[in-house]
Amino acid sequence: MKPSSIDIPAWRDRLVPILSGLGLLLVLVVWVPMSWGQGAALVAPIAVAGLLSAIAVLTWRAEDQRQAELARLRRDNADLTEFVSVTTHDLHEPLRKIEMFGQRLHDTLGPVPDEKQARYLERMMDGATRLRDLLDKLKTHARVRDDHTKTAPVALDDVVTSIIEARVAAPHTVALDTLPVVEADADQMRVLFENLIDNALKYRRPDANVDIRISARSEADTTGELAVIEVSDNGIGFDNRHADRIFGLLERLHARDAYPGSGVGLATCRKIAERHGGGITARGEEGKGACFTLILPRHRANLADT
Q1: Per-residue pLDDT at 8
Q2: Quick check: 293 pLDDT over 70?
Q3: 19 and 10 in contact (C-beta within 8 Å)?
Q4: Is pLDDT above 60 for 19?
Q5: For residues 175 and 200, what is the distance between their CA atoms, to the nearest angstrom?
Q6: Which residues are paired to 7 by β-bridges?
């Protein structure tokens, strides 16, 4: 910056105490002693003007700071999204080599008589598979705020029916009510319901088939008509004390050996719901199942920048 240039925020910083002090000085030193005389009618507006000027500048500064902080957060979010996208892309190449040469080693060796060596190879291959799954889901999570996504009318019936046909097989069942049409990003709606249905299939009780129920109703608030969709199951459930924790990124309530998963799916569900101006909550009972309540605006023009 050139020495002759003016730093506007710094100039305002100096102006605020000057105007505030001037207003206070006029009130305490001039207006009060003259309030018994005829000069009070002239001094009072000057004092009030000084105070109002100080308040105006303070408000101006606060708005500038708020906008600057908002811009910084948006830059940080964009940088984080780019970092996750680039990182997950670059990590796929060495991961492919681990999987490829691990498979070649397995094919070359054939049945390994040494149980310890066989277990090492199996764990290496399993670890590579889990890492690939985690990278894919983190990339999906990061792309939820992709500024190029658009909203359009989405028939949730069609989305959920196609997911059920692809992922749910007998003896497991899904009872599906008629679902509404919402203004949303179709790809993100698919990701959201895939995660909810996969969650029900994953956390099932070993002694029972999976029974999923997906119901819908309409409500209204000050923002307009809302679609309220509940996805419930008869699985292992969870302690309600953890109802918010399960939506945390990479949060897990169970050991990976007991129930596989990346800890990203439900965090992505919440991010998608909130980006569409809605939300998602959960309630559960250990050993009896869980219920996820999804709230989405029926009509929404733009996605939130989250």
Answers
A1: 47
A2: yes
A3: no
A4: no
A5: 13
A6: none
Mean pLDDT along residues 2-27: 52
Centre a 10 Å sphere on the Cβ of residue 131 and count the other Cβ atoms it contains. Answer: 16
Query: 48 is written with which tokens?
Result: 């009030």
Report CA dihedral (231, 233, 235, 236) to the nearest 10 degrees. 50
Strand 211-221 relative to strand 173-176, pairing:
parallel
Nearest C-alpha neighbor of 290 from the set 229, 243, 221: 243
pLDDT digits (tens, 9 = 90+) for 22-37: 555 555 555 555 554 5
Distance CA 47, CA 65 (A): 27
Q: Exposed, middle or buried: residue 154 (CB in 10 Å: 0-12, 13-18, 19+)?
A: buried
Find out whether 140 and 194 touch, Cβ atoms under 8 Å: no
Question: Which DSSP letter does residue 31 get?
Answer: I
The CA-atom distances, in angstroms, between 185 and each of 5, 109, 135, 228, 294 are: 47, 48, 22, 17, 15
How many Cα atoms sit within 13 Å of 147 on the Cβ side?
7
Q: What is the DSSP string of 96-163?
A: HHHHHHHHHHHHHH-S-S-HHHHHHHHHHHHHHHHHHHHHHHHHHHHHTT-TT---EEEEHHHHHHHH
Q: In whole numbers, what is the pLDDT of the chain averaged over residues? A: 77
Beta 289-297 vs 224-233: how paired, if at all? antiparallel
> Averaged over 161-169, what is the pLDDT?
92
Q: What values do phi and psi take at 140, rounded to 5?
A: -60, -45
